[in-house]
Please model this.
Amino acid sequence: MNIIKKFMQLGEKQEISMIPSGEFNLLRSRKSPKSSLECIYNDAMLRIRKNGDWNFELVVNKIVEVGDNNNGDDSSDYTDDSVSVLSVASKRREEEWNFELKKDLNFSKEWNKNGDAAFVWGNTLGDEEVEKVQFVITPQLSLTEIENFLLTVYRCMYEAEHKKSASHVSREQLYKYRPEPPKELFVTESDSYDEENLGVSLSEVNPSQDNTSDNDDLFVDAPDNLDSKAKGKKIKTPKKDKTKASPSSSEEHKENNKGVEGEKLCLLNAKVFVYDPFEEKFMIQEENVPIALVQSGKYEFWLSMEGKDVEFGLAVSPQANPSFTLSNNSFTFNYTVSRITLSYKIEFNDFKDFTIFENCWSKCIWMTLNKKDWEELPKNEQKYIEDTIIADLERDLDTILKLDDEEEESEDEEDNEYSKSVVSSEAFEDPNSGSNKSNSSKGNSSLTVAFRGNRSYVVRDDKIGVFKVDDDDDLEFVSAIKNISDKNKKILDPKDPMMYMEDRFMVLSDSKNGDKLYKMDIERGKIVDEWEFKDKNVVQYAPTKKFDQLVAEQTLLGISDKSVFKIDPRINTKNKIVQDESKDYATKYNFSSLATTKDGYVAVGSKRGDIRLYDRLGIRAKTLIPSLGQAIKYITVSGDGRWLLATCDASLLLMDLSIKSGKNAGNISFLKSTPASENNKTYILQISPEHATHILNYTKKPLCFTKAYFNTGINQKEDRILTSNGPFAISWSMKKVLAGDEKPYKLDWYDSTVIENNFEYNNKQNVIVALKNDVSLSKIKHFKNVNKSIFKNEPK
Model:
């Protein structure tokens, strides 16, 4: 919904811009005999109105619902002879506040302590010199729309002062009308204001005022003061604004901040910053803030900030998008309240405090996700988890030098050419069926890029669309395979397509039936074989070797929740599993993902988060990589077995499988067990919390990455990574990751959700993208560095 609206002429005055909903408050000095905070209108609109040439005013109106009767009587026949023209005008004045737009209004955008954006300006209508007003903006308003309204106010001020149009005035010039920012980004007035009263009820601060409404509906509870001096002492975290707090949800990271009591596991003092997405920098909020990690229940932990001005907490969870940076001893995370996501940074005083907090957080989040005591982990696994969670600044120079420098050259090119060619999935549909993509289809569900024949396949309901890249480097629709059905003519809901036998065939599964696989002849567009597996529900499958689809190899691999097995369709029995090349476990490990190298080494990931590496099937794994806590959704492996890429919901894990020390140095962990003294180097690839602020505020959903891929090709070195989240395609440079670059990724923004994306085979410059209803070809060089300007433009 477009919240800020433009209006044409309305009566005698022109409305320029409007915010249709918010809360209007009056801020007074501490010395005032009246309350420091008074809610004027619980529901109001804010408008910019033009009164004449170079004359503008800011107008706040009370919103009155249709059918409301201001005189308090429900009778439509009620009349009062005492109501005069003057009293009607007075009533209108009570419901409308007008402020002339001039520089001395000191109009600015701030954040209140509940995480809501607010406009604050001087109350030129008040009877006190230092009085201010604030308009707390509805959470549904996007950050871009807030910024646009702010700039419109400054344009009006410019025109009022200079008596000429501001159409060609730069953003920097307009920002000169912004008052000097306060030391803190939140709405916190000077010493003459009592900010602690922002949360108390009207009856407490102004008992003489007649108050017939429910105060709890209009005002915030006062924060509890925290006593946090001794480790092990129980504390209570502050309560959040009752009117703003959203109910907890597993899909959205929103904390109720109800009183949480428990034992402090660590307590340290640190500086707290909050990220301003418009300034693109962290702003100091408070120094010397007590930071505590509290055990609030069985495997439940809470991060609590207990400062004078910064006072809130959140659950220890991957949804907070936590990130540690060793270079400045900082911890950064996202915090969502009232559908607005902020990014906070805690900067510790020294490396010692940073390490204490990092170790404690590592243990807390691992126990939260695994529901086990930390002490149950072997020491080497504990060290692996603690070492991996820190953003390690070591440089792998040998590997960096081996990576292709072509990437950096192409990324620096300036090219304004439109970056995408798009083909609508309407091409899938039968024009005579009367169906259309908007109301009869679930949309595209997967993308598969062939290694031969310049073909890509997109699954849509019971159809598969076939696409190619033409000579002009544009995407072209070739054909559609429709009404995919089994041998009994039963319509399938195909998923997880895999190219097979020189890319002339495709292996499919049916989302409704997990105990069969289907072999489809692509040229004929028909299922030609069906394979069953005794007592095994096939979770995932993969080629026996990474590039087997280029040859006529018929075997493939599969996993169930507790077994890894080879499949040979030529076996002359109903069960197609090769028994002596299978491994069944007594324990249900919840296997979830499978990948192979060019030599046939096998990697298996699980929902537990651990990964097993095999040099061949039928035996125990050579190496077990411990879980960092998050479930593994997908894995892929580089052709030579050096690199493994795992996809989790909120992060990617890039693992170096080469052994660095001992008698097996130079080997990879598929062939030899990783020494106990050495852990596989793991890089956690995340969207930084400050960049995630933009994405989360746009999508209103938690981060959830689609399957990540390396660029792939015969004799091509893997040096790029591709995934997506919501409408954003995301590319990582491995060279930048290994060099310790804090922002080693770029984005490309679409106007709908990216279902899946992958590199064109043997061409790391082209990216094929399956959107919900379209298929796109994009260039990697058109991906952009993340900054606020990316989100000011419309998606392509």
